[in-house]
Amino acid sequence: MGLPQDDIELLLQFKDPATKERAFTAILKKYQEKLYWHIRRMVVEHEDANDVLQNMFVKAWKGLENFREDSQLYTWLYRIATNESLTFLEKQKKRSTFSMSDEESGLSNKIKADTNFDGNKLEWKLQLAVQKLPEKQKAVFNLRYFEEMPYAQISTVLETSEGALKASYHHAVKKIEHYILNN
Amino acid sequence: MNNREDISTEINGISKTLGSIPFINVFTVDADYLPSLVQVIIAKIYEENSLNNFSVPDGYFESLAGNILTKIHALENDVNIELKGISSLIAGIEKKETYTVSEGYFNNITFLNNKRKSAKVVTINKPRLFFKYAAAAVITGLLGLSIVNIVDKSNTKNSVKTSLETITGTMQPNTVLKNASFDEALQNVSDNEIEQYLQKSGHDVNAALVASSTDDVEKLPEVTDYLLDENVLENYLKENNLKN
User: Fold this and answer.
1) For B20, nearest residue in chain A (alpha carbons)
2) What percent of chain A has pLDDT over 90?
3) If DSSP codes are grouped into helix, strand and coil, which group holds residue A79?
4) How many contacts does A have with B, using Cβ atoms within 8 A?
5) What residue ranges define each of the domains in chain A, with the CATH number in brackets?
6) CA geometry: angle at A120 spanning A114 and A124, to 5°?
7) How far is the C-alpha of A53 from the C-alpha of A58, rounded, in Å?
8) pLDDT tens-digit readout, A148-180
9) Which among A32, A153, A176 has CB closest to B34?
10) Which residue of B has its CA nearest to A119?
11) Is A38 exposed, middle or buried (0-12, 13-18, 19+ CB in 10 A)?
């Protein structure tokens, strides 16, 4: 699958110093919202999502000149966003070992702390169930369920085979179902 | 990108429960967050680039090689590793030369080497012949007196023989005299000078004078010739712990 024409144009402009910033601004505007929500569902809190999003775009700026046009720009950006989110969660987990208990620092508690949280609503229960998944399986579920991404593209983002992704998604759905039915 | 209908169909096939949940984004964000995000991110990129890519601390490259070598030595030097194991305090002290030399000292070393002085040669004069005889006479005389003393004390023929053999076997004065070669310049020294030397050296002057009168080593004095002074015998016995 080749690059969309507008992405090709943006990449060409990015490689020209005269138009570099303008091109990057256009890329930001095009993908920032999708990437924000993907990151937000991974890390839950807005402040954390904001940090991760800014860091991932800084990395994108540095790596965009070497971007290989045989892959799609948006899957490349999703890969950076996912990896940055996973790295953030891993660091947070290590920090909590020394400072806070899992209960205090858990993502489930952050969801419950949201001003709009309603534990009786299924959509909130779904979010609580998603946070119980292992991090990478959570990424698989979010990319498929919320981002509606084809397995082929998820495979590019997570560098995992489509078969493994389908199996992972299946197990994730069953775990979530089990959680919702028992809570 | 799959549409929502495809995703719903798939999830219904796996779980009716999840398929029945409405697709709602439960999270919210301030309305002005996303519109202002571009400026924030661009500003951050420029900030990071200016910090990371275009400047280094003053003098960084001048001291870089030294710093790297210092680290390498610190890692590789067994002495440092050993010292750290013993005392991290001392190991932490920078090895710095506290002594100084005047400027240009090492340049002048070459010059000094070229004009290096030869070692001073000290000539050792051969002992004078007279002194040789005097010394030999003293030793021989003392040996003789010691034999007399042993004979008197033991009063047995065998013990005298054994003592004589023991002493002469060790000292062999005739052999020493035959093989030694002394400088005849010793003859230029006056008797007074020799007497002063012997007194200074603690030897009996009379015994030395007796010995000095002997010109031929084959004609050494008899043992009784040395009984001129009992002090000679006493001194010898004291020195050699032979008395009682």
Assistant:
1) A122
2) 66
3) helix
4) 87
5) 1-100 (1.10.1740.10), 106-183 (1.10.10.10)
6) 45
7) 9
8) 999 999 999 999 999 999 999 999 999 999 999
9) A32
10) B26
11) buried
Instruction: State the nearest Cα–Cα gap between B43 and chain A, in angstroms.
Output: 10
The token pair at B36 is 């202002």
Q: Say if CB A72 and CB A1 are below 8 A apart.
A: yes
Number of residues that make up chain B: 244
Task: Using the structure block, give the residue that is written with the tokens 């999703």.
Answer: A78
Segment B132-155, tens digit of pLDDT = 677 778 778 778 777 766 666 655
- Say if residue A90 is exposed, middle or buried (CB neighbours under 10 Å; 0-12, 13-18, 19+): exposed
DSSP reduced 3-state for A126: helix
Single pTM value for the model = 0.53
- Beta partners for residue B183, in sequence order: B128
Cα separations in angstroms, A50 against A41, A44, A77 = 12, 11, 15
CA-closest candidate to residue B212, choices B137, B149, B119: B137
Inter-helix orientation angle A46-63/B33-53, to 10°: 50
**What are phi and psi for residue B128, nearest 5 degrees?**
-75, 150
